[in-house]
Amino acid sequence: MEHYDAIIIGGGSAGLAAAVALGRSRRSVLVIDTNKPRNARASHAHNVLGQEGISPQHLLELGRSEAEHYGARIVTEEAEHLTGSIEDGFTVKTDTSEYSSSRIVLATGLTDDLAGIPGLREAWGVSAIHCAYCHGWEVRDQAVAVLGVGPMSIHQALLFAQLSSRVVFINHQPNVLSEENRATLDKLGVPIVESRIARLRVNGDGQLEGVELSNGDLVDAQAAVVASRMNANAGLYQQLGGQLQEHPLGTFIQVSEMGLTGIPGVYAAGNAANLGAMVMAAAASGTVAGAALNADLAISSLNSELNKMHA
Ligand SMILES: Cc1cc2nc3c(=O)[nH]c(=O)nc-3n(C[C@H](O)[C@H](O)[C@H](O)COP(=O)(O)OP(=O)(O)OC[C@H]3O[C@@H](n4cnc5c(N)ncnc54)[C@H](O)[C@@H]3O)c2cc1C
């Protein structure tokens, strides 16, 4: 079985940044990745300093070649089983192989669970959007329908009302709006439509043509803003006995400032550990986790040398 200093599971921004930090420290690194980043449906990634508007796949191609330049090996496989401990080392079984390592980085991202509105999946990442910083500028001044599906929806209305004066809030029944929520929307000048949404009318390119209500009326909108429930892809962490943290918007792996999880030797970075992390924050947390893991390995090999000398 091939052994590595570190196995990084997930090769998005977080995992590749960790791989660069570790590769530059002359660690042997394996990145196991299914290449399905969360923003795969988006044509451009914004708020990426120095690479503003780059395509998500191109950004990861650059990251892969940088990681490989420093010796990281990247395989397109799915990690299915994770066992072991810091004392005995870790074993990762993928769909085709088996590898071992001294340390693990979980950079597996999160899954966006979408409200069950017909058409939403087809429009997701194209004209059904969740993040003002990722897509807001692109829909400025457009007709925008915020779909009221949960606790994030009011916050989204607040941010998108800053970008367009043509925002409408469709309170998708049975979503409940408090009096305070209604007052907020009123102050923002955002009208409320009280109705269950029948479906998003979407063309073959994922472009929204309007939001169809349960009575058949069509709300004119070029973009639908909708929050997902965000759950960390953390099955492997749970296989090691790790517990997930609950958040009003989903679940995540709790980590220290340096990316260490509650399990010694196991680090987590990116959206798996921070539901709100955008591309640069995900990459930054990967760099931090990679650096912390490297120092952890350096200290533990120094300690074992000292123990041998004193034995
Ligand atoms: C539609 C959309 C648009 C967005 N636009 C922007 C934007 O413009 N700007 C911005 O800053 N942010 C944007 N984001 C957020 C951005 O996608 C995340 O910040 C970023 O992808 C997080 O990086 P990550 O490395 O944590 O996870 P990901 O990029 O999701 O990468 C996780 C990787 O792990 C792999 N993986 C998961 N489980 C396994 C496994 N068991 N075995 C092997 N591989 C596995 C996946 O295939 C994937 O390649 C957007 C998000 C969405 C949904």
TrEMBL record:
Pfam families: Pyr_redox_2. Keywords: Flavoprotein, Oxidoreductase. Gene3D superfamilies: FAD/NAD(P)-binding domain. The keyword Oxidoreductase applies. This is Thioredoxin reductase. Residues 4-284 form the FAD/NAD(P)-binding domain. It catalyses: [thioredoxin]-dithiol + NADP(+) = [thioredoxin]-disulfide + NADPH + H(+). InterPro entries: FAD/NAD-bd_sf (IPR036188), FAD/NAD-binding_dom (IPR023753), Ferredoxin-NADP_redctase_2 (IPR050097). The keyword Oxidoreductase applies.
